[in-house]
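Suppose you are handed a protein chain with no further information: no name, no annotation, nothing but its sequence. What can you learn? This example shows the usual starting point.
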Amino acid sequence: STLDGTLFPYTTLFRSVDLPKPASTVVLVRDAVGSAAHLEVLMVRRSSGMAFGASAWVFPGGKVAPSDADPAWDELSDGNYDHYERSLRIAAAREVFEESGLLLVTRDGRELDAAGSAAFDAMRGVVEADPSLLIKLARDAGLRLTLDRLIPFAHWITPSFEPRRFDTHFFLVHAPADQVVRHDGREAVDHAWVAPQDLLDRRKRGEAKLMFPTRLNLEVLARSPNAAAAVTAARAQKVVTVEPRVEDRADGKVLIIPAEAGYGLTEERM
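A reasonable first move is to predict its three-dimensional structure. Written in structure tokens, the prediction is:
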């Protein structure tokens, strides 16, 4: 949006080379199966050939496509959102489908099970190549995207000194209970359901690569003992936009983020 809060026309939003590109990221949570139930989050490992975040463990997500703002989605998805907010949520659901095979949808009022979601696997690469085809898929298959289940979790804007910039909205969602993750093997070459603190510990041991926003959001998730608590905490929090800035000091450069973002950290040496 502009400084006075009005929305840019979508042609401007998606064509501008100066603005950070709108993007959505999805924090999928569930409770671990077994007697020692605890919070797990879905992480995918990006291909080593990716231009952004190569080999890093990330939450599923990606850029908003122009078709994610198509008014046709008004009749194919839940929730009362303006077209920009809806486009962020459509992008979130679409990227989850492409990268993990999970479908945040209902059909005849019910979530899909494992077989129901797997039946659409052949369309994942097709939708990745042409995101507008997700509209046809949803309409033909009688699917309705359940956007209300996506809870705003964080908002990060890539610093201005970076050559590739994204205006990324993070959404938390309780994962569909009966579906099974299948990473796409292209952008996501591996996946894991993992306790947030376990992945943070692996990063400290040099066994996992995490980008700065991913790491801090995992630290927030690690405060919740289970999925229900994570959902409750996300609904209660105020999302503060984080656009890190760099400060030059005598002993080197420091990355600064606002204290009100709630990460318990305001600066980190670069």
